[in-house]
Structures are given as C-alpha cells and as structure tokens.
C-alpha cells in the first residue's frame, strides 16, 4: 500500500459529495444505509462483509483466498440512479451493494491510483471498475444489460461503480465532501477488479 500523504506531483481536479453510506456484515445483494461508516486503512469498511486485507468477494475467494483485497470499498455515483430511473428502473443508494454513493463526480472515468479524500480524513485509492454479476438481474430483470453497454467505438462500458482500497482511516458521513486527487504521471485507465 502507498502512504496516505499526498504526492507533491498530484493534481486536485474536483470535488463532489457523499450522498449516502452503507455497510452489511453478511453477503447480501444490497447494503442497508448507515448514519456513518468507518474506513480503516488496509482493511476497508468496519462491519462490512467485504472488509479485510485479502479478498472477501465470494467468487474471488474460491479462486484465490490469498489474493490482496482490491475491492475494500465500492463507490457508485448517484447520477447512475437518475439514469436508471429514466430507463424504467428504481434503484436507491446501497441497493447495488455499494458502500459510498457520491454526487458530482464521474467516477468511472477516473484513472487508476486516483485518491478520493472523503470527509475529514479518510482516503480511498481507486483500484478498478466493478464488473456487475448476474445477481443484478435477480434484483431487477434487465438491469445488468443496462449496467454494461458499449460506447460509439465499440468498447465495453461498465457503469456499476468503482472499487478502491483504504489508504487513510476516517469516518465518512452523508454530506461529506469528496476531493479528487489524480496520481502523478500519465493516466492509466481502470480495468476490472
């Protein structure tokens, strides 16, 4: 893991806000909203089933239980829910299993290694895109097809949020600001984690 201090070569590019925070201590599709969540460096969201230094995702756990946990925190922009509503779906914060719902940030366009400063002290480093699984169709029929599409160039576009690791501990509450710090060097696109 990288140190929590900001890189002198990094660029702060924008601000957004936290709309909602969620956690669940069991493997269920949706996560209930919470008044706050505590992020712990190298671990994830306290009290959440996906927290840990090694992977806790059921599918990845079967493949390699020693794999580093690059999916400690799941973030989704609230704007996705607005788009889904226009397509006939009703989805609220936490219902797609995310820990943090944001507004005002284009999360999936952020480069690998971007740091999101949440609230007073928590920092999450972006590790990749979430690839939605077929359980989404069990939640709402046809939703998966809406969350994975293609752009004008024929490239796959995944809209189910991003994943990250906690590099600085802190408490996150709805209404907190999110400050975006780009990594030093050239941008590296997000892959699926």
UniProtKB/TrEMBL annotation:
It comes from the Bacteria. PROSITE patterns: MOSC (PS51340). Residues 31-181 form the MOSC domain. This is MOSC domain-containing protein. Gene3D superfamilies: PK beta-barrel domain-like (2.40.33.20). PANTHER family: METAL-SULFUR CLUSTER BIOSYNTHESIS PROTEINS YUAD-RELATED, MOSC DOMAIN-CONTAINING PROTEIN. GO terms for molecular function: catalytic activity; molybdenum ion binding; pyridoxal phosphate binding.
């Amino acid at each position: 893991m990288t140190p929590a201090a900001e890189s002198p070569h990094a660029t702060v590019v924008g601000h957004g806000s936290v709309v909602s925070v969620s956690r669940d201590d069991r493997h269920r599709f949706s996560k209930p909203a919470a008044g706050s969540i505590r992020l712990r460096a190298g671990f994830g969201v306290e009290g959440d089933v996906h927290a840990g230094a090694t992977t806790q995702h059921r599918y990845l756990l079967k493949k390699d239980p020693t794999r580093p946990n690059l999916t400690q925190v799941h973030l989704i922009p609230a704007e996705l829910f607005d788009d889904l509503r226009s397509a006939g779906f009703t989805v609220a914060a936490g219902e797609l299993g995310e820990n943090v719902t944001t507004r005002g940030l284009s999360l999936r366009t952020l480069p690998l290694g971007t740091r999101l400063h949440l609230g007073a002290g928590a920092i999450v480093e972006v590790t990749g895109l979430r690839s939605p699984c077929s359980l989404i169709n069990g939640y709402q029929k046809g939703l998966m097809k809406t969350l994975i599409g293609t752009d004008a160039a024929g490239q796959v576009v995944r809209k189910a949020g991003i994943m990250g690791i906690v590099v600085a501990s802190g408490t996150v509450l709805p209404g907190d600001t999110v400050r975006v710090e780009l990594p030093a060097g050239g941008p590296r696109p997000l892959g699926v984690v």
